Each structure stands twice: as C-alpha cells, then as structure tokens.
## 1
Amino acid sequence: MRWDLINSFLVRADDGSVTLVDTGLKSAPPRILAALAEIGSGPSDVTTIVLTHAHLDHAGGAAALAQSTTRGMTVHSDDAEFVRTGVAPPRDESQRLGRLSRRMSSNFDAAPVARTMTEGELLADSQLRVHHTPGHTPGHCSLLHEPSGTLITGDAIWNMRSRRTWPVLAFCTSGALTEQTARTLGDLEYTTAAFTHGPEIQERGREAIREFLAKPKRFGPGL
Ligand SMILES: [Zn+2]
C-alpha cells in the first residue's frame, strides 16, 4: 500500500501473518486498516508493527494501531524511548531553521514498544533485514526485503516529486550523520527502492540511489 506523500508498507508472509511498516500520521489508521482489508487480511493477522523511526508522520498512528492489533511496536533501541513517551527526537541545531522549528511541537501519542531491533537483524515474520541508518533520528532504520529485492529507505532519502533529496534538515537530529549513513544504502543489493516519502522506483532503484549519492551537492536545509 502506498500514498505518495507518506507511505506505509504491508508485508504478508506465506502463513498469512502481516508485518506493517510505519503507521503514518494520527489520522492514518483507518486507511491502513482499509488497505489491510483490501489484501484480505484483518487486524488480528498483524503480528509485527515496525517503525522506521519515531517521527509523528511515521509513528502518529502507532497508539491506535497498537490497540486495534494488540501489538506493540518494533523499533530500534535508540528510538524506543521516543515511541514510549511520544516525545519527538532532538533536532539538528546547526541551522537556524532547526532552532526555530524546535518550538513547533512534533510530539505524538505514546505507544507501547514490544521489542527493539538491532543493526543486521533479520525480522523473522517479514524477512526484513534491519539497517541502522542513524542521523535523521538516533534510531532511524532502513529495511531490506531480500526475497523481493526491495529496500524501504525510511527517511534516509526522500523521493518527493520523483526527485531524490535529503530529508529536510530541520527535521533531522543530525544532518551530517544522515548523509554519512545513507551512503551505506548504495552498497546493499536491491532493485526496488521504496521511499517513505515519494513514489517507489522499480527495477533501477539502487541505480537511482547510487546516482543521487554520487552527486557532489551537500546536505541542504530543504528540498
Ligand atoms: Zn522523519
């Protein structure tokens, strides 16, 4: 399932169990449950809910979906406390925009954490491999579905208006670290790049990401 602006993903295993990746904004759960019904599954089939990171447009629907599925979140340990408390991670203060935006609240409803995930781990239900790509948030992760050759980038790289960009610096804990860790995504094996913001790129996903990473343009404060 995908929307162009904020994407969540459903991975259904052969045994019918479903893993949901990201829960969207607070308003997203009805649409996510509708998408679940569309593939012939229900809330009780959801065995795992993975959050790429603790931002309100990815974890905003977590509290409601935890209730409807009775599942806690799976999230990297460095973002777990933000999910448990609903307090957004700190923002990069090297830019004026970061300092100004700090005043805007970006907290979300606290949600239970069922378990934490670590770099290199294979999530058994979904066969998603965890790649810790900190910077956007301390516990930000990208997820590689090896069987289908699909990389879920998370917010490491955006594809807004079908153009690869860095995420907005004001929303990153560290812009420099975001850029540094995103470079590891060029080395992984996949054909489809599935972005949490923007449409996916099939077939030449890795090529497109490598081209973006090779550009000399430095991390900027916006799109
Ligand atoms: Zn984010």
Note: Helices lie at 29-38, 56-59, 62-69, 77-85, 96-101, 175-182, 205-214.
## 2
Amino acid sequence: MPRKRTLKLRCPICKKPVKSGDAEFPFCSDRCRTIDLGKWASGAYVIPSVEDADEQIREVTPEDSDEES
Ligand SMILES: [Zn+2]
C-alpha cells in the first residue's frame, strides 16, 4: 500500500511550511538546502556542545549557593 502521508514540517532555514513530498524536502527550495549545507560546513550547528554546557552549569550552581550561605 503506497505511503502518501504528507507530514507538515517547516523549512529549517526560512520556516516556511514544507510537505514531505516536496522535491527539496525537508527544505522549501534548493536555495534553503544550500544554505543549510553551508551552516553545517561552517560549524553553525554544534548541538552536542550546547548540551555539555547546560550540564556543566547545573553541576556548578548548587556548589555556588552552598558557599554563600
Ligand atoms: Zn526555506
């Protein structure tokens, strides 16, 4: 049975709604896909590092408040 479900997603670059059946999915156009490739290449997306920084802040905060009281 053919899968013809259309997921409603947004282009990660310009936030325009994109259908999963579009030729440039998940981007709305070839232009946005090229922009996204450039972001990856230049290191604009560094998701693991962001998570590491968040964990470090949570570990440090309790010690700081303990010293103050
Ligand atoms: Zn776009």
Note: Residues 11, 13-14, 16, 27-29, 32 surround zinc ion (CB under 6 Å).
